[in-house]
Amino acid sequence: MNTRLRPVPRFRQRGIISLVAVIILIAAVMFVLNQTYGIIGITSLSNDSQSDSIAAFFLAESGLERGGGIIKAAADPTAKSACATNITGTIPLGRGSFSLSATSAGCDGSNLNCTSCTIISTGKVGAASRVLQRTFSLTAGNGGVTCNHLTTDCSNQSANPPAVPPTWSLTTKNTSANPAIALLHLAATRQGNTSGASCTAQSNCSLKWNINSQNGARSVLSMGNLYTLNSGATLDAVYQRVASSQPEDVVEAAVLFPGTSAPTVIGAYWNDTNSGSGGTHGENNDASGTTNYGTAATSVACTNPAPGTAQQCTNWCTGGDTLIFGFSGGSSSGLSDTLGSVLFNTAGTPAQNVPLTKLVHFPTASNVGAPANVYTEIWYAQNPNLSPAANALHVSSYKGNGSGTIGATWTGAGNLILGTILTVATINYPVNIISVGDTIASSGGVSGNITETPTIVSQLTSTEPGGALGGRGTYQLSSSQTVIDNTGRTWTSASTVLNVSACTVCFFAPNDAVSGIISGRSINGQESLRTGETAGGIGRYVLSGTTQTTVAAASPVKAGTPGTTLYLPSTSSIPIVSTPAMRIALVAGTGAFDDTTVTTVSAVGAPNPQTRSFTVSVIPKTPLDDATMCGGTCAFFNQSSATTGFSIGKPANTDYWASGFACLHGANLPAIVATGSSVQPAAWHEVVY
Prior knowledge:
Distance between the termini: 89 Å
Number of helices: 2
Structural class: mainly beta
Number of domains: 4
């Protein structure tokens, strides 16, 4: 049987291609849909991440702004603490946060004052993170604050912290290792009859003066505030309120005056009257002013500053060593005006012409945006005080200064001569003494007197307490006679022995010329010390010459030739040798310094345990005798007048000006101008890791 496969009919193969095509199309559509959904998902995730990244970037930028604000507002912008300590931590903001860190560079040996601060700010939102970096250049300069009424309301009238911050304020930090007094001096333009500035918004304000140069247009205000600051302490955000009736420009600067121990504020002086009798303000061609005496021992109570008044007390500078002058100038020539000099006591006797040193002038051309019509300056002068008290007492041009007698006089019962024995019963010992070699005489009485002039050979006995010699007792005479006891008889002993019975300056020495009690004699030497006597002080001194003399009543006695060396008791205060040389002034007593020059101290010594001495630059015009002297700021003042004048080297374009004085004690370290920084930020950049 022949079997054979037969082909499928062609009509049965129709449609297979279409089916395959449909399957392929469906697969393609499914693939496209799958890819589309994947792309959509990826795009959505990418959009969320991009949004978070942008938000993180802006948060990081906000962090840079915050860090920069901390630097600019820091108490001492050059301090590392403001950079590395304050600029740290994480702060939530919006739906993310930013974290800050900072590093300082170019710091000094104390690791405080630095030249730059680099801030790193990391912004985070979700998983997104952006890092920005910015470096701030810190250039130290004279610290101060300005406010220009053309751009800012400078009055601070609405300031009521913490609700409303002031538009301007000054922060001062004591960078010294010792306590200090800070002077904040404000200068402001004035318009009209206004009451000046006030510092009521700060509980620790210590207002010392607050005066106007006048009450009309173009007037200026001077305001001085003093504060005590411990080492490292900060006087934070001090500001004043000024009258808001007219636009005003404000500038303020600060200086610190440290001491080895805590310095103290003695007082301040101002004169805000317009009586024409002098004061601490002026206008146009005025270039001088006055204060009162200032260094009186006692005075009326010191008054507080008030418009139109003057300081009434005259002991506002007693015991001071630092005189401060705060000056406000109104200028019509921009920022170029500055005082050329300040001289204190320009018309005294002598005129001291004490030159003050400028510590700060503010603002300068580098203070961009500062008002150009007003400026502040702080000047000062220092002079050491005597130690331990402010005044030196019993100062003398003479090495020895006291009282004494030569020989003796006595009367009364019991005094007689029998043979060669003299009995003395009523002498005024120890003011009067009898010495070996004295010649004896008598007068008066009812019968008999010495017919010869015998001399004392020796003392035989003493009836003075303790057996003291030279007083009551018996004496061996050189010749014999009888002079009976008679109460009306006067006895005398003529002598060449000077008996110094009291001395304020006790440095009597051989070869010293003697004056007062006697003239034309000098001291040959001091006799051996007896009870109550001291070398160079109370005791008996043999005078030159042979002529016998009797000065029985206690009389002034001086020894030595006046010169540039002055003497005083060891218990008195003493000047010091300093650089520059310490100034001194005569407060009271006999004598006078040269009225054509300043007297300063060049050396200090101790001649003996009872006496001190110091050498001055010029021989006193009239020898000093029991004088009282002072140093410190006392020596700056006119000692012979109720007022002391001062002058300023005022530029021609500075018209109105106002000022005040302050006095400190114990500010014996170099003054420090409060420094701030010119904070200059560099462009920021993103850190890519």
